[in-house]
Amino acid sequence: MLRLESLSASYRGLKALQGVSLEVGKGEIVAVVGANGAGKSTLLKSIAGQVAIEGTIMFDGQSLHRMPAHEITRLGVGLVPEGRRLFPRLSVEDNLRLGAYAKRGTADRFKPLELVFSLFPRLQERLSQRAETLSGGEQQMLAIGRALMTQPRLLMLDEPSQGIMPRLVDDILAAVQKIRDLGVTVLLVEQRLAEALEIADRAYVLQTGRIVMSGPAREIAADDAVRRAYLGI
Predict the structure, then answer these.
(1) How many independent structural domains does the chain possess?
(2) Are the beta carbons of 7 and 46 closer than 8 angstroms?
């Protein structure tokens, strides 16, 4: 579904990615793991059209190079950014409906609400609340729900457990698995390495902007030398 070849990108004047190549197959959960500053967020922003790049990004056989971010979203690439980036003073319902803006003009643009509420019943209970009044975990649910409103075929998640109480992290990651089971491919960047590698099919280890290892997620998780050398654990 997604193929990157020799991808390089600079962010805020610094070379953040250097010659990155990776693939994500339809129906997979693929994790990108690495220490802080490795370039993980820049990788997702590059795919989403938010960072100038050199190299090749192909999505379902179509080049994303120089394509505007809103057109990439319309093609079926959804991004849940680090820090969630909600509209804090708008209600839960308005945040979700704004997620469907890319599908304006289509009769079924609000149909994903059913999916969002089945995954995150709390959101349905809090439709009229402002986003800024939700807990960290609920805000993350809302950010994922808003991305699902774009009806993505590929969902990219940047640190979905960040700033969330530990008891809700399992709920968020379980929802990621359910999303994959419903037919949405997932590219996951996650600071909780053990949990990310547990739910992923395959993983890439990113270090200072370069891919230094890839393979089945469980094999990478079980390799103590890899964990010490590249993941800092």
Answers:
(1) 1
(2) yes
